[in-house]
Design brief:
The complex is a heterodimer. Chain A has helices spanning 15-23, 35-40, 76-81, 83-87, 89-95, 101-106, 109-115, 123-129, 146-149, 225-231, 238-251, 262-280, and strands at residues 9-10, 27-29, 49-51, 61-63, 67-71, 132-137, 140-145, 150-152, 155-156, 163-170, 177-184, 192-203, 206-215. Chain A is α+β, with helices and mostly antiparallel strands. Chain A starts with 8 loop residues before the first strand and ends with a helix. Chain A is globular and about 60 Å long. In chain A, α11 (238-251) runs antiparallel to α12 (262-280). In chain A, 34% of the residues lie in helices and 25% in strands. In chain A, strands 4-5-10-6-7 form a five-stranded antiparallel β-sheet. In chain A, strands 1-3-2 form a three-stranded parallel β-sheet, covered by helices on one side. In chain A, a hairpin with a 2-residue loop joins β12 and β13. Chain A folds into three domains: 8-51, 2-Layer Sandwich (Uridine Diphospho-n-acetylenolpyruvylglucosamine Reductase, domain 2); 56-170, Uridine Diphospho-n-acetylenolpyruvylglucosamine Reductase, domain 3, CATH 3.30.465.10; 177-281, Enolase-like, domain 1 (2-Layer Sandwich). Chain B is α+β, with helices and mostly antiparallel strands. Chain B has two domains: 2-75, Roll (Ubiquitin-like (UB roll)); 85-152, DNA polymerase, domain 1. Chain B has helices at 22-29, 74-77, 85-92, 102-115, 121-127, 139-154, and strands spanning 2-7, 10-15, 48-51, 54-57, 70-72. In chain B, strands 2-1-5-3-4 form a five-stranded mixed β-sheet. In chain B, β3 (48-51) and β4 form a beta hairpin. Chain B is globular, with a radius of gyration of 15 Å. Classes of the chains: A alpha+beta, B alpha+beta. The A-B interface holds A 1, 3-11, 29, 32-33, 36-37, 40, 49, 51, 53-54, 77, 99-103, 105-106, 187-189 and B 17-21, 24, 40-43, 45, 48, 54-57, 60-65, 67, 108, 111-112, 127-131. Bound molecules: flavin-adenine dinucleotide and FE2/S2 (inorganic) cluster (FES) (2 copies). One FE2/S2 (inorganic) cluster (FES) is lined by residues 96-101, 133-136 of chain B. Residues 37-40, 42-47, 57, 59 of chain B line the site of one FE2/S2 (inorganic) cluster (FES).
């Protein structure tokens, strides 16, 4: 955004105009909490921006029997105030750690997904819920599981001219317990060093099914499926789970960056599994 | 490009590029210098304003994003020459030293008290977590918000410029 702001932003009237403008090389803009920082730092320099934030087609939150459809312009704050956050505690836990109130009022969940950061807190609940990303483009619409949409740090399956139209968040069956925790360097505006989210279905004190998603320890958010499988049949007892925590540490592929070393990230990942066990037991 | 919005209760029309930062628009084009620029990257909260009643960072907002909306800045709180209860409370609780962060805190606190007139200390801390202060150590600011909440609950005659009691 340089010192005074990017030169050109256009505000399309409807979705088809938005798609056309993006196909012409325009860069989608939603809340701007990522994009404006990148433009200011001159990490990139798109020819013009296409402001999607007010498009009527992208506003709604629709509750269906099997899940919720969240429009791409829906902000974290709006989602947190909605019934969806009540139905999906894992979403509430994760989104309420994003930035601070003003950032949550501005930033969107779709922007978090398109950003494809391995530290994206919004991605963790989406991986856990096995959410789907609905795309609109010059060739029409298509849908992808979030895990296939995110390809790497900042890399997505978006094709030329495509934008995210909405996200579909399935309601999980039964009543899983929800866990989310991120470890970072500062309490406010915490950017994760490592984070873990979990949905755990318990039956008579032992794990019946588990889904885990780790942030900031691999090029994308990671579902450690092997560890999920091995959790089945075990009690949420840190002593019993210690070998699994060790395994989780070995599984992750963290990088060393300004925020933390790779070995510290490994260690944290394992510890988080034990913390999950303690928090969700009982 | 001509952009229309309401600013502190009044209609304004400005002719600026749609990508002009709201922060520059307020400070340079409209002369409202209460809103401060600290980091310019969303990390400090000094530029907090309210858009349609919700907190937003003016350093990460383009002019086009407030088109047709209601913007409230710190100048709009003390309209009529009288300090807002939040500002009175900050003075009383010694929540101000250099004052650079103050407008941002005032606006964030205003937003908090509008949606939650009875915040706990913890809720105040959490809500203000995006606002940095290098001088006060925050205690006085948190006290001030709790005090302002009391003022506002006790005196319904203190209405804000947009006609609402926060
Ligand atoms: C101070 C600060 C603290 C932060 N804290 C956190 C945090 O704790 N956790 C966290 O996960 N993130 C955090 N963020 C990052 C950011 O706020 C989130 O990723 C946010 O969800 C991004 O959404 P947005 O609407 O602002 O995206 P934008 O900045 O508008 O866009 C981000 C990217 O997505 C693309 N895009 C947006 N919408 C679409 C669409 N519909 N279709 C296709 N592409 C699209 C844009 O082109 C751009 O590349 C923080 C940012 C700041 C400035
Ligand atoms: S100047 Fe806007 S958050 Fe720091
Ligand atoms: S009073 Fe100086 S930064 Fe807060």
């Amino acid at each position: 955004m340089r010192k005074t702001g990017p030169a050109r932003i256009v505000r399309p009237r409807d979705l088809s105009e938005a798609v056309r403008l993006v196909a012409e090389g325009g860069r989608p803009l939603a809340g701007g909490t990522d994009l404006f920082v990148r433009l200011r730092r001159e990490v990139e320099d798109p020819p013009f921006l296409v402001y999607l934030g007010e498009l009527p087609e992208l506003q709604g939150i629709e509750l269906r029997e099997d899940g919720a459809v969240v429009g791409a312009a829906v902000t974290h704050a709006k989602l947190l105030r909605s019934e969806v956050a009540e139905r999906l505690p894992i979403l509430r836990l994760a989104l309420s750690t994003i930035g601070a109130p003003a950032i949550r009022e501005m930033g969107t969940l779709a922007g978090n997904v398109a950003n494809a950061s391995p530290a994206g807190d919004g991605l963790i609940p989406l991986y856990l819920l096995e959410a789907r990303v609905l795309l609109a483009g010059p060739q029409g619409e298509r849908e992808l599981p979030v895990e296939e949409f995110v390809l790497g740090p900042g890399k997505t399956a978006l094709k030329e001219g495509e934008i995210i139209r909405s996200l579909f968040l399935p309601f999980p069956e039964g009543e899983p317990r929800s866990y989310f925790r991120k470890v970072g360097r500062r309490r406010a505006l915490l950017i994760a060093v490592a984070s873990l989210g979990g949905l755990v279905w318990l039956q008579d004190g032992v794990v019946e099914q588990a889904r885990l998603a780790l942030g900031s320890v691999a090029p994308t958010v990671l579902r450690p499926r092997e560890v999920e499988q091995e959790l089945v049949g075990k009690p949420l007892d840190p002593q019993v789970l210690a070998p699994l925590a060790e395994k989780l540490s070995q599984l992750v592929q963290p990088i060393t960056d300004l925020r933390a070393s790779a070995s510290y990230r490994r260690e944290v990942a394992g510890k988080l599994l034990l913390d999950l066990a303690v928090s969700l037991a009982g | 490009m001509s952009i229309n919005f309401r600013l502190n209760g009044r209609e304004v029309e400005v002719d600026v590029p749609p990508g002009r930062r709201l922060l520059n628009l307020l400070r340079e084009d409209l002369g409202l210098t209460g809103t401060k620029e600290g980091c310019g990257e969303g990390e400090c909260g000094a530029c907090t304003v309210l858009v349609d009643g919700r907190p937003r960072l003016a350093c990460l907002t383009a002019a086009i994003q407030v088109e047709g909306k209601e913007v409230l800045t710190v100048e709009g709180l003390s309209a009529g020459g009288k300090l807002h209860p939040m500002q009175e409370a900050l003075i009383k609780a010694a929540g101000v030293q250099c004052g650079f962060c103050t407008p941002g805190f005032v606006m964030a606190a205003y937003a908090l008290l509008s949606e939650n007139p009875h915040p706990t200390r913890q809720e105040v801390r959490e809500f203000l977590s995006g606002n940095l202060c290098r001088c006060t150590g925050y205690e006085g600011i948190v006290e001030a918000v709790l005090l302002a909440a009391k003022y506002l609950r006790g005196d319904p005659s203190r209405v804000t410029p947009d006609g609402k009691t926060p």
